[in-house]
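Notes continue from the previous slide.

Worked example: a multi-chain complex. Inputs as given:
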Amino acid sequence: MITVEQARALLFDLVGPLAVEEVPLSRANGRVLAREVTAQRDQPPFDASSMDGYAIKTTEAQKDSMFRVIGESAAGHGFAGTVKAGEAVRIFTGAPMPQGADFVVIQEDVSRNGDLITISDDPGTNPNVRAAGGDFRAGTAMSAPRRLRPQDIALLASMNVARVPVTRKPVIALISTGDELVMPGEEPGPDQIIASNTFGLRAMLEEAGAEPRVLPIARDSHASLETAFDLARGADMIVTIGGASVGDHDLVGEAAGNLGLKRSFYKIAMRPGKPLMAGRMGDAAMVGLPGNPVSAIVCGYLFLVPMVHAMLGLGAHTPALLTARVKGDLGANGPREHYMRAVVKDGVATVFDNQDSAMLGVLAVANALVVRPPNDPALADGAEISYLPI
Amino acid sequence: MITVEQARALLFDLVGPLAVEEVPLSRANGRVLAREVTAQRDQPPFDASSMDGYAIKTTEAQKDSMFRVIGESAAGHGFAGTVKAGEAVRIFTGAPMPQGADFVVIQEDVSRNGDLITISDDPGTNPNVRAAGGDFRAGTAMSAPRRLRPQDIALLASMNVARVPVTRKPVIALISTGDELVMPGEEPGPDQIIASNTFGLRAMLEEAGAEPRVLPIARDSHASLETAFDLARGADMIVTIGGASVGDHDLVGEAAGNLGLKRSFYKIAMRPGKPLMAGRMGDAAMVGLPGNPVSAIVCGYLFLVPMVHAMLGLGAHTPALLTARVKGDLGANGPREHYMRAVVKDGVATVFDNQDSAMLGVLAVANALVVRPPNDPALADGAEISYLPI
């Protein structure tokens, strides 16, 4: 058996960044920018007023000065002429500064009488002008890779980047295996249960940025598994759930082996989680998850999501852990790294007593997996622990 | 002018939870569960083995006991008969316990010879049986409201809830206003800029769980604004961006007023952000955001996202703030609540020097808005500050 960290390193070896595709800006949020893009123009594209007021020359920006208003500059409609000594242009926030003017007296500091204005209060020294290119210049780059957020989308729009190069979403085939499984909405027989992992993992992978495809449930036979693997062709990753060791036979491993699986590893020293196997199968990475619902979901967070991130070009990273203080005592951990369901609130982690890997109910009320290293000694109330938020 | 908190309270008055709709489980992740749902069955539906081994009677679970193997119980295929004294059934993880058996000797503790097995090691006292209903019972409820996560989806599947009652997504019409705006991909005139807020807010609202609809840009005329408001009919919320005060005229306010806007408030004492107006307009809530890119996005996080959450039935909540230590000194704050762009890393907040509300570039590299209360005194390096992660 190998450690969680060793397993993740081997899993990262199975995948790499996918190709780049272009999407319209309206579909780019949450996608991963695949390569640097550059602004198509300066922003602002011209010196712009940052206030409503009157554009004049700085040299004349003094209390009691008088000006003749010769025109108006509004957002979208600049003033075509030039401002000379003793002249002012009515100007609004965001509007282009007229030629010859480099100062905006705010309207609150001005009294107006027809076409004449007088600066009635000290106009100060702030010119209230946003310089052309002050936000960014044409050619300014947005660096990649990065997961695009709403504010990045706004900036890309502002840069006039209408089509965005992003990493293609990894296609992940999900194959649940087992004679005992039926799909939600079906009527299970007395010995059957509902396939729950497929749906949980599908949601998780979609959230992570992948394009999951749920395949028909594979039954516990070579023929059925081979059909499923066949349907998975074209996927970037194939994930089987359950059946990694079905009693006396490792049916999934055998079927995958027959189809050319180059096995990278088989078991990981972790709870919940083993068995888990992985390797290359043709052009795809193949990961075999345990069938216990909690094990499958925990392995999803620990291994599949980081693999998706790697395929999206975000790099091969260990999921970031946070720290909290444990509530109550925790017994010593055994030789396997243990991911314990817990609720973290206000920096305090309450670990559930029942860590049975079949208990989905406990997982659904948890918001954290507290990480216990192998052979971690017993912890007293208040001890610092690391956890993965889920 | 009113405070941010007063504004949010008034905004919450404009919206309420929307109707319930049913979606298939495969589309339910990230949606808000609108009402309690209950498990359709026990899980496990039967006493199930938690290990691979042999099912026997507890009374006979002793080292050196011998048994005749009378059949097999696998996942999906239970054993139909009854286990009597001196008998064992080969059993696999997750398989139903046969009648008469209540203990599973793990296979590692057994030596087998044809149909006969002998317990070769101390089998311990753990029966390795998961009791029927141990995870949940038929009728066990998943409480609402809650934003469904992957582990909730897995649990719902396991409960055999194939269609999920969720709150309808609020439809939000986005109207950018201004003669100076063109859409990304268009060729702007010399006095024009690209409409960036629409795209940023669209991404933000979609992420928050709404269904944003981008309407054509409204020009700075009553006719154009009325056309846009007309196109917005049927939306749960109408958001205008920019033009809340265009020079001498409050065109958006006037046009909205002509169409029946019942104004709730007009300005908020915050930076960046004012002017911002809000009210009811027919069946819809109406919010007018400032046109400065940063102001619009910040107002989106502070006001629109909480309003979406309220419409989704998650309650009327102030966005949750985190705390960090400020790096370097920060000057005293003025009379308006200030949301300062910053980068928070390892608990330390580095606040950008340039807080100009037109600087999208600064927003796109920020991951936090540090909150300065009105008249907050100057802060020394290391002082604790609150921030909103973005």
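Summary box: The longest strand of chain B covers residues 337-345. Chain B has seven helices and 28 strands.
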